[in-house]
Predict the structure of 8700_t:CDS:1.
Amino acid sequence: LIEELKSSSSSCSTASQTEYIMSPGNFTDLYNAIIKAEEQIGSTNQEVIRAYFLFGKKLKEKLAEYIKTNKECKAQRLLIKEVSVQLSFDLSKNAVEKRIERVRKIYDLFTTIGEDKIEKVKSYSALRISKLNWDEIDVIVEKFEF
């Protein structure tokens, strides 16, 4: 993964496929974009990773809103509750928490090393990246620190 992220080549296929989720209204839209990208034949790893990244961006924005009026622990609970309500059609609270963890790993990684690095990922899926533990993500991040 580090080799791909540091490579000089990139792909531009993601932009056209994910334009429809660039300004989503809610977590349901973002979740549906992830599902669509994962199920769509021909979706690139970049498209799926970008869908996760955008979900993560929305999570961070919403958490920041909650933190303005609540302590962090309560803000986290409120965020999970909101996501659970919006995605209640097929996910348990535990499944929502796992999905949020997966999203956060991808979002944190690419926010830290650069969103542009998503375009360089070729052989690693969003699921494979999300299965990295936080220490492994830290090792990748360290390779990009100046």
